[in-house]
Amino acid sequence: MTSQEPGGTAGYGAGAGERTAGGSGMGAMGGAGGITGGGAAGRRRGRTDWRRLALAAPLALALAAGSVWATTASAVPVTFAVSGSTFQVAAAHLAGKDAVQFASFATDAAGKRRPVAVAGIGRARISHLCQSSVAHTPFGSVTLTIRSGEEHPVKAENLVIDLKRLDGDLRFGRVQMGRDAGSLDAVEGVRGDRGTYGQQARTLDIDRMRLRAWSLTAGTFSLKGASMAISPGDRSCL
């Protein structure tokens, strides 16, 4: 996460480091590490029933989306294995209060460690959000898309994202860059390893946000007037 003058465009990808934060593991904004691409395989006379797989894949995506996008009661995210693919998010604007960023690793179900840029935000409002996750089946790709209501921003608290890449116009308020990642305190329970680079800010605004992430978790994540759809093909929000 790099500082930008208002109106400038910035992007960052994953770095190196080790996460030791309690509760800074990620789940997905309905995506990898949240909405996971997948399906169900049936067996008939020793062979896979691909017709059942094609029908089950969209259902699995929908169930994953519902489990992630529902509001939860926990205040701090918990650690879990991420899926092996990223999901995509596009939004017109994100307004955040209390933000931290540091480099770490996320581990998938197969035990593979993936470098991530961990971004934590105490409170966030996200306008015109589009989230997509693509599952690849023997019959082609299937895309699950979730969109927020046109007149109602998404509201999130204790938001933590394992980022692969973020692009947009970023503006920080009262920023501290180069702070020891182990001493970050803007977002409760979200910090990195001592002796490694970290940064935090009182406010964070992102215009024209585009990101790819392994996972997302939040204490609460509320959408009003949202819609969810499954469609054939790769129809990423990006």
What does this entry look like structurally?
It is globular, with a radius of gyration of 18 Å. The chain contains one helix and eleven strands; from the N terminus they run E-E-E-H-E-E-E-E-E-E-E-E. It has one helix at residues 50-69; strands at residues 10-13, 42-44, 47-49, 87-107, 113-127, 130-137, 140-147, 154-180, 197-217, 220-222, 227-232. The model is unreliable at 1-9, 15-46 and 48-78 (pLDDT under 50). With 238 residues, it is mainly β. A hairpin with a 2-residue loop joins strand 6 (130-137) and strand 7 (140-147).
The profile of the biggest β sheet is: 9 strands, antiparallel
Strand-residue fraction? over 45%
- Unreliable segments of 5+ consecutive residues: 1-9, 15-46, 48-78
Oligomer: single chain
Tertiary shape? globular
User: What is the number of beta strands?
Assistant: 11
Helix content: under 10%
Query: What is the H/E string?
Result: EEEHEEEEEEEE
Radius of gyration over alpha carbons?
18 Å
Distance between the termini: 20 Å
Q: How many individual helices?
A: 1
Structural class of the helices, strands and pairings?
mainly beta
Q: What average pLDDT do the residues reach? A: 77
